[in-house]
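Work package 3, deliverable 3.1, input record:
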Amino acid sequence: MKHVDFYFDLSSPYSYLAATQIDAVAARSGAQVRWRPVVLGAVFKTAGNDMPARVPAKAVYMLKDLERWAEEYGVPFRFTSRFPLNAMKAMRCIVAAEEKSLEGALSLALFRAVWVDDRDVTDPAVLREVLAGVGLDPDATLAATDTQSVKDRLRAYTDGALGLGAFGAPTMVVGDALFWGNDRLHFVEKALRG
Amino acid sequence: MKHVDFYFDLSSPYSYLAATQIDAVAARSGAQVRWRPVVLGAVFKTAGNDMPARVPAKAVYMLKDLERWAEEYGVPFRFTSRFPLNAMKAMRCIVAAEEKSLEGALSLALFRAVWVDDRDVTDPAVLREVLAGVGLDPDATLAATDTQSVKDRLRAYTDGALGLGAFGAPTMVVGDALFWGNDRLHFVEKALRG
């Protein structure tokens, strides 16, 4: 079966926007999404990149641009009051959720918590609520985030993305073709069809 | 009449790609393009931005991405062997061409010289040829590039773009809405229709 590997960080608003579309993009080509959380800070550091919002005029523009995309897609969006946020624990939950094949559902639920409901996903109580909401056992999942295998897997996804040439998020990979940005989903779809 | 102000630097490959489309985008909404060359180096410096190609993995990706867009648009594209290039003189020619209302035609001809034919637009002989090709008097136009009014106008466009919030190129402005990037032409078209 065809796959698109979707590399994202929950703290990235463009990753949220792309996440709202990626299942449909893949489905239209009979492909499946593989959800791959990555630590964007590590990607930036290793790639020698920086947060786009470091450029003041770009930060102002991005707020407007994000709203335009949300309107285009017809999805809710509210810029989090907690930016930049450390979503490490939440992303380890996503990795842990793979065991129950709920990583996609959990990714979307966590994206909504951050980029729609302005919730604090660094707070274990919030995480528990979101985990339970998608049918995961909060205790078991949170316990798994402290295991070396889950930590290692999140690191492996991050290193894997870097190895493929990623320098930001979201990054989509189809075969050996890499695409960067919510605004390249049309190229991803073309690649899946090609 | 509705307008879209198209701020560009000849040295920017994404500006070239957008330039190949902007007339059609405007025409579909009964709008007109105002061609506004800007000195991208000055925009980057004042905005605190940097060339995207400074990030090695991004530079690699961009070459592929530019090819994808050229294919999508069905336009020829070859990355110039002279990058980064100083297109100051050529952009002053565009400003000087306003007197004959040939700034659009000259912009497109110069973009082709740089991003299709790999010509050296810092060479006055090349400039003369391109100028003559669009029906401009090479001597008169080159002489005008040394006048203060032409120099000031190029600077005014650059400062104007910065004043509107620009931080890169291409930048498109419709009314008070600013759009950045070849990949936002669909939003430009929406704004022109709205």
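Strands of chain B lie at 3-8, 32-37, 171-174, 177-180.
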